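Might I ask for a little of your time on a matter of protein folding? Here, with my thanks, is the record as I have it:
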Amino acid sequence: MLTGIQIAFIGGDARQLEVIKHCIEQDATVYLIGFDNLDSQYSGSRKSDLTPDVLRDIDVLVLPIVGTDDSGVVESIFTSKPILLTDELMMSLAKKCTVYTGLAKPYLYNLCKKHDIPLVEMLNRDDVAIYNSIPTVEGALMMAIQNTDITLHGANIFVLGMGRVGQTLARTLKALGGKVNVCVRRPEQYARAEEMGFTALYSGELKAHVYDADIVFNTVPAAIVTAEVIKQMPGHTLIIDLASKPGGTDFRYAERRGIKAMLAPSLPGLVAPKSAGRILAITLSQLIDEQMNEREGA
């Protein structure tokens, strides 16, 4: 239970609603900032403006999956008003407060460091990232089916990256009968890909193998689907880039070649916000409980 804990939510998308409901059910006191256009009323919560007075006594500050942009703007689909997390606002946070987000960009990271505020990036946790890979993969498969005229069964598919999303994606595609090639950087990843029954190749070999690619899924947040690689692809290839913005694809050159390339970050919030929100809600309540226990034991 979160009885006596004061939590402020600033912005977000539909995933945040599940987290809010869970915290209210756990008896937390909840403040909603940047939810002006939210029609639903949540008993036990109150809508507020982003002011130092609101932040002064809270225990937990919850930001969206991408906490802020590079200038401190917090995105929210529930308001038309700009939300800016400033240095002055962060100064008003109580020393007991912890900031939770999905992944922090340098602006938020540096702001928390400057004011000695604990920052927790939930998507850096293996358990959250693995659970989150499920809606990500389901959304990626939906996009592939909608944007091709072939079945995934029998398709020649490349999965770039053998991380938490890459493994779930490659395994699911193989189960559907796809011919799955996994592109990796390190020898242990190569060995794991072969052990799992995929055709393994190193990143430097990619351009020599994509001449008959039907679909390319990228999960690597670095320039990997370069112009040189795209040049070797047949015209019907579909590229779905799942990495965070700006992705790892040369979208300009893909368009010039007439190859369809789609950037698709944050798929869980688009295709399964309720499930993705539950994952975050359970993790957040566990982390807050641990935080409170550590404080009491200090």
